[in-house]
Amino acid sequence: MSRKDKRNKNYPYLQTSAIAGDTMRNLFILCLFFIFSGCTDNVAVEEEIPTHDSIVGDGVRIDTVKPVLPVTATVDTKNVSAAAVVDYAKTLLGIPYQYGSADPVIGFDCSGFITYVFNHFGISVPRSSVDFTNVGEEVARENASPGDLILFTGTDSLIRVVGHMGIVVQNTDTLKFIHSTSGKIYGVTITPLSDYYKGRFVKTIRVFK
Questions:
Q1: What range does the domain containing 7 cover?
Q2: CATH at 92
């Protein structure tokens, strides 16, 4: 009988502890796998909930998204005015935030809000914020107009991938945008472009002619 076998025979609790240790180690490794593979939320959900964009900021995984439009596309706005879209978006103020949802009865995540607003006018848009990256015409932030879309990273601004978005409602002295946030307000709200959001800013895009 080997020294190891004798030890296990005389002290069975050592064998049990070793098994428990292996189990805990495997669970720890599994947890790390889920964290770094983006299986949290957003990740991305967005805003003050920590996010990562392999699950885009709006509750949909990048690798499972099937965009309504190609990732590079012009949105057919069907002669709908930007002002009409902004006005309708404002009627949804106060609807709560809900991860992965585009249903006002339940709530909206950021791109779910955009989808619902545009779909109200029969306008097809991507369901995921990251899929807006190459949509429309990029415009300088200072030239953004009401109805333009404003794109941000997820909460980790070092990951320069789109993970949150909103609709510009004003750009006079201060740019303001309407969006569904998982932050303190936790719902649809109008927010000024603060230093925090400037740090996460990716670009503004124009989809209305």
A1: 3-36
A2: 3.90.1720.10
Contact 44, 52 (CB under 8 A): yes
Whether 75 maps to a domain, the answer reads yes
User: Any catalytic annotation for residue 31?
Assistant: no
Report residue 30 as tokens: 């599994």
- Note the pLDDT tens digit of each residue in 128-162: 999 999 999 999 999 999 999 999 999 999 999 99
Catalytic, 164? Answer: yes
The verdict on 28 and 66 lying in the same domain is no
| 85 phi, psi to nearest 5 deg | -65, -45
Per-residue pLDDT of 70-96, as tens digits, reads 555 789 999 999 999 999 999 999 999
Render pLDDT for 17-55 as a digit per residue (tens, 0 to 9): 444 456 556 555 444 433 333 322 333 333 445 433 334
Task: Give CA 148 to chain center in angstroms.
Answer: 18
Give the active site residue among 31, 39, 52, 110: 110
Q: Note whether 29 and 98 are same-domain residues.
A: no
User: Token pair for residue 187?
Assistant: 């719902």
Q: Is residue 80 part of a domain?
A: yes
Q: Is the full-model pTM beyond 0.90?
A: no
